[in-house]
């Protein structure tokens, strides 16, 4: 925050919303992308 202005806001996204190519390493490792998310600023 800069006074009353938001100057940066992280966005948390569920991995299930990502493309298949992005999720592929998880699939290859035998992990479910359902409970996994990532944070992007």
Helix/strand layout:
Layout: E1 11-14, H1 20-28, E2 37-40
Antiparallel strand pairs: 1-2
Please provide a written account of the structure.
By secondary structure, the protein is an alpha+beta fold. It has 1 helix and 2 strands. The protein has one domain. The longest helix has 9 residues. It is rod-shaped and about 45 Å long.
Q: Please give the alpha-carbon distance between the first and last residues.
A: 14 Å
The number of helical segments is 1
Order of helices and strands: EHE
**Widest sheet: strand ordering:** 1-2
Low-confidence stretches: none
Largest sheet: 2 strands, antiparallel
Give a short synopsis of this structure.
By secondary structure, this protein is of the alpha+beta class.
């Amino acid at each position: 925050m800069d006074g009353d202005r938001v100057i940066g806001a992280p966005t948390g996204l569920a991995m299930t919303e990502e493309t298949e190519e992005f999720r592929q390493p998880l699939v290859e490792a035998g992990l479910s992308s359902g409970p996994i998310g990532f944070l992007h600023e």
